[in-house]
Design goal:
The chain is of the alpha/beta class. The protein folds into 3 domains: 99 residues, 4-hydroxy-3-methylbut-2-enyl diphosphate reductase, catalytic domain (Cobalt-precorrin-4 Transmethylase, domain 1); 82 residues, Rossmann fold (3-Layer(aba) Sandwich), CATH 3.40.50; 89 residues, Cobalt-precorrin-4 Transmethylase, domain 1. Helix content is 36%, strand content 18%. A 4-stranded parallel sheet has the order 1-12-10-11, with helices on both faces. Strands 3-2-4-5 form a 4-stranded parallel sheet, sandwiched between helices. The protein has a 4-stranded parallel sheet with strand order 7-6-8-9, with helices on both faces. Helix 7 packs parallel to helix 8. The two termini are 20 Å apart. The model has no long low-confidence stretch (mean pLDDT 95).
């Protein structure tokens, strides 16, 4: 029986990522721009930026920048970071995704309204660091063991890292409401719509009875990793790949239906290359 391949109905770069890439690759910036951090979490995009004369430095390497212009990544940064860059004399271009900007605004709104801000997400993720940097006091939680940070705070105002799984956030909200000292929890959903659409598209793949999942995206892409988790949580073999050559023919032994999806920072040509590699492995030809 031939192996079937089904592509997710929603996958690949979202509008925020694509806007950031297009901005950084504008020929006007060639040789004149430094991106502070990884513009988007995808190695092929990073390679294209470097090939187009864009320089990339980590946030702790700002002192090494020699260009007049710098760009804040799609994941955003705190106002303090942007102010510091301007005070250093750089022209600052902001490629922050609009939905990340919304997260920043809502976290500060909750703080102004007297709620203790809580971000459900990974504390070491650049997006979360930027949000926390704009708040006077806050907590970042991802596991129930993190909830001890909330002791003494009765009114919790909760937002989420934009790339989170909704079921993960819902479970954390339930745990927060069960804390004996918590009187009130206000949640504003800041998980971005493209992420929700890609997670919903996986549900459709699962309903189609795939028995193998291939998830394409940068190794450090949070939303890509979570797409793989959604498939694996259903007991289905799922593999996260960055490049077509990483796809292993051994994965397909005994499989009948492969589902392919990709994170919101994965370009279309990378998706097509991986899909072609899978087709060659399972013996399918043609478009």
């Amino acid at each position: 029986m031939p192996v079937r391949i089904t592509l997710a109905q929603a996958m690949g770069t979202c509008f925020g990522v694509q806007d950031a890439i297009d901005m950084a690759l504008d020929p006007v910036y060639r040789g004149k721009l430094t991106v502070v951090g990884q513009l988007v979490h995808n190695p092929q995009v990073t390679e294209r930026l470097l090939a187009n004369g864009v320089r990339i430095v980590e946030r702790d390497q700002i002192d090494s920048i020699t260009t007049e212009a710098v760009m804040v990544t799609a994941h955003g940064a705190s106002d303090g970071t942007k102010t510091y860059l301007r005070e250093r004399g750089f022209t600052v271009y902001d490629a922050t995704c609009p939905l990340v900007i919304r997260l920043h605004k809502l976290a500060r709104f909750l703080e102004r309204e007297g709620w203790f801000p809580v971000i459900v997400g990974k504390a070491d993720h650049v997006e979360v660091k930027g949000v926390v940097g704009n708040l006077k006091s806050s907590a970042v939680v991802y596991h129930e063991s993190d909830l001890e940070q909330l002791r003494g705070h009765e009114r919790l105002g909760v937002v989420s890292q934009t790339t989170n799984r909704l079921d993960k956030v819902t479970a954390m909200l339930t745990a927060m409401r069960a804390l004996p000292w918590v009187r009130e929890v206000r949640f504003i959903d800041t998980i971005c719509q493209p992420v929700k659409e890609r997670q919903a598209a996986i549900s459709t793949l699962l309903q189609a009875d795939i028995d193998l999942g291939i998830v394409i995206g940068g190794r450090n892409s949070a939303n890509t990793a979570k797409l793989r988790e959604v498939i694996a949580d259903r007991g289905i073999a799922a593999f996260h790949v960055e490049r077509p050559e990483e796809v292993d023919p051994r994965w397909f032994q005994g499989r009948t239906h492969v589902g392919i999806t990709a994170g919101t920072s994965t370009p279309q040509d990378v998706i097509e290359a991986v899909n072609q590699r899978v087709r060659e492995i399972v013996g399918l030809t043609g478009p």
